[in-house]
Design goal:
The protein has 441 residues and is mainly alpha-helical. The chain has a single domain, classed as Ammonium transporter fold. The chain is 63% helix and 2% strand. It is built from 16 helices and 4 strands. The strands form 2 sheets. It has a two-stranded antiparallel sheet with strand order 1-2. A two-stranded antiparallel ribbon has the order 3-4. Helix 2 crosses helix 3 and helix 7 runs parallel beside helix 9. The radius of gyration is 22 Å and the shape is globular. The N and C termini lie far apart (59 Å). The relative contact order is 0.14. InterPro entries: Ammonium/urea_transptr, Ammonium_transpt, Ammonium_transpt_CS, NH4_transpt_AmtB-like_dom. Belongs to the ammonia transporter channel (TC 1.A.11.2) family. It is a multi-pass membrane protein.
Length: 441
């Protein structure tokens, strides 16, 4: 121990790549910004009487995940003692204590502490996305309990399965290895999920669909207008998400190199194309492009390129983004056809966009994609990992949602839903009406 290592958990003699370390710390900070950005995005899409509750739900995720990730989240996701390739031993590296002394450097020359910093922000944003499907009708206490259980039983295992060497990775014992064999311990055809198509967007989107069905619709859904109360707030949230997404995607290169630069360019290209696609859909359908549409289109493109940012060229990214913008805009309308209350379009944007991006890799990957002469093997494994992610997330979420429904209950009272969840759950209002006293002050 010394003045720069007061708790004795850092190897002061280790050689770290300061450039890669700096890049990853910046990337982690950018991804951390995305959860407050979601609060703005979702808050603006909510009605005025529920904006604070929606923002509280996302900030609540930050509070909870920041506490439990160093306790057992990292260990379950990236620990060395894998249990069936589904999750790692939560007690092996509990609290991170004694974990990173000695050779505490990963393959990119970045301290493992920085890897923890980066990964905890992914756990936060993934869980926060689900909140958009539950707007205006659930107890804040039920949501917090759900966050603790869901991130433990759904997110941490999915991160291990895909990124931690589990059954959805390309390592020994994985589905890909069983199907295609291995060379030097790596599947001959490995799944591609560069930054979280399965772990983040399919996982959260499927959870959002299941939990919206379990909890039920808001009074008046599909019968009366429930329009966003503050579209400038929505656009600001979308802009900050766009900015933070460069940490999300380019940061997933884990060093400041050409791959990070390519991911940055592909991310921008896909988002722009998706914005165009969404506006085209609106122009055809209603005759007028909207601010909500272009903001949602940006997010749809960012979602779709997330798993593919390191595998596509800019032309492929443009095609992917355009498809995502068109299809996600159409998918959002399905909640009215099938009458499920996905309040803020999590299913249409994140679930559908995540599937599009994950599967499209099988067509558009420059090395192994079907359109580039790679055959159908990559497409097959991409479909399989998407399907398995849907199944696991759906089953785990359903069990958690039903247990909470029949124990503490999800819904606030019907009267509180009508008068507004901000007052009912938090005794606050985002927009106080002026009183006689305030006018005289």
């Amino acid at each position: 121990m010394g003045p720069d290592d007061p708790v004795g958990l850092i190897d002061l003699g280790a050689t770290w790549d300061s450039g890669a370390t700096a890049w990853m710390l910046v990337s982690a900070s950018l991804v951390l910004l995305m959860t407050p950005a979601v609060a703005l995005f979702y808050g603006g899409m909510s009605r005025a009487k529920s904006v604070l509750n929606m923002m509280m739900m996302t900030f609540g995720v930050v509070a909870v995940v920041a506490v439990i990730y160093p306790l057992w989240g990292w260990s379950m996701s990236y620990g060395n003692e894998s249990i069936g390739g589904v999750f790692a031993n939560p007690f092996e590296q509990f609290g991170l204590l004694g974990t990173f002394d000695g050779a505490a450097v990963d393959d990119f020359g970045v301290p493992m502490w920085v890897s923890v910093a980066f990964q905890v922000t992914f756990a936060m944003i993934t869980t926060a996305l689900i909140a958009g499907s539950l707007a205006e009708r659930v107890k804040f206490s039920a949501w917090v309990i759900f966050v603790v259980i869901w991130v433990t039983l759904a997110y941490f295992p999915m991160a291990h399965m895909v990124w931690g060497g589990g059954i959805l990775s390309g390592g020994e014992g994985s589905i890909a290895a069983a199907l295609f064999g291995t060379t030097d311990g790596v599947a001959n055809v490995a799944p591609i999920d560069f930054a979280g198509g399965t772990v983040v967007h399919i996982n959260a989107g499927m959870a959002a669909l299941v939990i919206a069905l379990v909890i039920g619709r808001r009074p008046g859904f599909n019968k009366e207008g429930m329009r966003p109360h503050n579209l400038p707030m929505v656009m600001l949230g979308s802009a900050l998400l766009f900015f933070g997404w460069f940490g999300f995607n380019a940061g997933s290169a884990f060093t400041a190199d050409g791959l990070a630069g390519m991911a940055w360019v592909n991310t921008t290209t896909a988002a722009g194309a998706a914005m165009c696609g969404w506006m085209i859909y609106e122009k055809i359908r209603t005759g007028k492009p909207t601010s909500l549409g272009i903001a949602s289109g940006a997010v749809a493109g960012l979602v779709a390129i997330t798993p593919a940012a390191g595998a596509l060229d800019p032309i492929g990214s443009l095609i992917l983004g355009l498809i995502a913008g068109l299809v996600c805009a159409w998918a959002v309308s399905l909640k009215y056809k099938f009458n499920y209350d996905d309040s803020l379009d999590v299913v249409g944007v994140h679930f559908v966009g995540g599937i599009i991006g994950t599967v499209a890799i099988g067509f558009l990957a420059t090395d192994t994609g079907l359109f580039y002469g790679g055959g159908g093997a990559q497409l097959l494994i991409q479909v399989i990992i998407a399907a398995v992610a849907i199944l696991i997330s759906g089953v785990v979420t359903l069990v958690i949602a039903l247990i909470l429904k029949y124990t503490i209950g999800w819904r606030i009272s019907a009267e509180d839903e009508l008068r507004g969840i901000d007052i009912a759950e938090h005794s606050e209002s985002a927009y106080e009406a002026p009183t006689a006293a305030s006018r005289l002050a």
